[in-house]
Specification:
Keywords: Decarboxylase, Flavoprotein, FMN, Ligase, Lyase, Magnesium, Metal-binding, Multifunctional enzyme. One of its GO terms (cellular component) is phosphopantothenoylcysteine decarboxylase complex. It catalyses: N-[(R)-4-phosphopantothenoyl]-L-cysteine + H(+) = (R)-4'-phosphopantetheine + CO2; (R)-4'-phosphopantothenate + L-cysteine + CTP = N-[(R)-4-phosphopantothenoyl]-L-cysteine + CMP + diphosphate + H(+). This is Coenzyme A biosynthesis bifunctional protein CoaBC. It is a single chain. By secondary structure, the protein is of the alpha/beta class. It has a single domain, classed as Rossmann fold (3-Layer(aba) Sandwich). It contains five helices and 14 strands. A hairpin with a 2-residue loop joins strand 2 and strand 3. Helix 1 crosses helix 5. The longest helix has 16 residues. Bound molecules: cytidine-5'-monophosphate. Cytidine-5'-monophosphate binds next to helix 3 and strand 9.
């Protein structure tokens, strides 16, 4: 472990997408690559933190040196996160699926010749960030992300209040930005004190900026 301002601090990080099964061979997912969460884990470890990294099926390999917990679904991520507490800070960079199929089939769904498929019924997944924020084991610093395609700041401000976290890292993931799945990011950090818009930079640089601010906040 590196020595630094975060030495002795345990930071819990979620990253990547989740996969929500439809049947044993099909799932619902999203375009998260896990790149920003992985970069943030590396930056935090670079400042001395010990990191528990709970990751969905990401495209990028998990950070070396972290305590990695691999999960697939939102419910598994929920369980892994609570199992990893207590922590000095928790950062929820994962793009958790908001919904899952109610009764995923245990056999592959087959065409029945009718030309139609029975509609899938969905139910909401647990909101891990909101639950941790309200939990008695709440870390002193809880940070959420808000990936939006429109009305970014308004949605992020509402999220900060609704979820009960301390900071929201808001980013515009409209397709034309190339941010989701890309190597750059442009984030706005929202706290009770206001909004701080960082210029577009590499995900590694965003991670370093965020890690430095986290170290400042935990000092
Ligand atoms: O509500 P929305 O999904 O946009 O909120 C994004 C933030 O909440 C992210 O930090 C994400 O990791 C977290 N989240 C979560 N559990 C969910 C949904 C979102 O932890 N089920």
């Amino acid at each position: 472990l590196a020595e630094g301002p975060l030495s002795g601090k345990h930071i819990l990080l979620t990253s990547g997408p989740t996969h929500e099964p439809i049947d044993p061979v099909r799932y619902i997912a999203n375009r998260s690559s896990g790149a920003q969460g992985t970069a943030l884990a590396r930056a935090l470890m670079g400042l001395g933190a010990s990191v528990t990294f709970v990751t969905g099926p990401a495209l990028v390999p998990p950070p070396a040196g972290a305590s990695v917990v691999k999960v697939e679904t939102a419910r598994q991520m929920h369980e892994a996160v609570f199992a990893a507490l207590p922590a000095d800070a928790a950062v929820f960079a994962a793009a958790v699926a908001d919904w899952r199929v109610v009764d995923a089939s245990d056999k592959k769904i087959k065409k029945d010749g009718s030309g139609r498929i029975a509609p899938l019924e969905f139910t909401e997944n647990p909101d891990i960030l909101a639950e941790v924020s309200k939990s008695p084991q709440r870390p002193g610093l809880v940070i959420g992300f808000a990936a939006e395609t429109n009305d970014l700041i308004a949605h992020a401000e509402a999220k900060l209040k609704r979820k009960g976290c301390d900071w929201i890292i808001a980013n515009d993931v409209s397709p034309e930005t190339g941010i989701m799945g890309g190597s750059e990011n442009a984030v706005t950090i929202l706290t009770a004190a206001g909004a701080d818009a960082l210029p577009r930079m590499s995900k590694d640089q965003v991670a370093q900026q965020l890690a430095a601010r986290i170290a400042e906040a935990l000092r």
